[in-house]
């Protein structure tokens, strides 16, 4: 072969290699952020915020690009680098962070007709005097699959859709973000709602193991043991831990015979009954005598607002879906799962289970519409970018529930991140946890949180690092103005205490 032929082949191969390299570079889209200046007035003082929203080019442990990771960052102008910073997200999985963002944390919030249906647009968006932005900078996080977040390069959706995958990717984002923002030496916090608390319990240990210790973790409507939400065959735990919230719901809707001096006093009686009478009765199974069963069914009825006959037919075990449907069936209504103060029209009076959640129906549309208006107009995001509110709308969405430490004999024996949080606290006894519970939350029930904490095996002194607060509202307690004000007070005090 002639020399000129070799030269031609070499040039062609070089050209192909360059073309391939160029094509690979084209496959990695660039992160894009949009900046604006926002303000919020809190306690008579105006806070000016340098705001950035968009995506961060997320890298894996070998600095290979794997995702465009969505966020909104509010930074107080002319502030110290040591100002606290809060990383916040919602749950799902997998939901975008607009609920917390536009409900209680950001500089603006939507007004909701709590606890009823909000009229169609125009919606009222107001200054959020309950924001935490006077205390800390804020980063609202949208995990891969929601917001503007998506995998890039060789990464795939399933690399991010799972308990451990999710913890890893959010851990990477937080580490890279605090380095970029010069926040490594600032007081740092995680704030999650619902599944976001389950994530938090694993994430706090994950970050701590990487040398990033949190000053505190804020749990909004928490769940750490997912079996608490599942009414599994042969497992009575979910029936027990849901019952106090059934009772709270009946108390609110005036379906109990004796409301007592207060909701708290009433629920203390319910807790005592649940632990000392209801649990032993279920433990007996079919060894419970007819008279014992009848007596327990009557007490369940007195506390929950359902009938003794209903509880007997249910073998003393009523699921949450059955409770939503049964409590106000005679009035033609069903009660909310996320917030049982909300009621809606019962679509099928013969149905055993509720067909819809009135709270979700009442607030979802106004939250989504008003937030997107704020996102594209106030935060100046390009209007040809789609903001995805939930990953369930994506084709093929499936969550991997396996978690390291939950496997025994090659089987999933639990789905819990509670051991992670326990380990993080024992290895860092300065770590504080603030847990905010809604009494009327039938999605993540308060007695389930109490059960989890009482089974962490913490000594009395370390257990004091877990601070429990309660609200007369539901899963998103911040739709209730008095609870939103208390939310602000509780979170402020927690940041003040732990950032010194």
Automatic annotation (TrEMBL):
Record has Signal as a keyword: yes
The keyword Hydrolase belongs to this UniProt entry's keyword annotation: yes
Keywords: Carboxypeptidase, Hydrolase, Protease, Signal
GO biological process terms, semicolon-separated: proteolysis
Superkingdom per UniProt: Bacteria
InterPro entries membership: AB_hydrolase_fold, Peptidase_S10
Name of protein: Carboxypeptidase C (Cathepsin A)
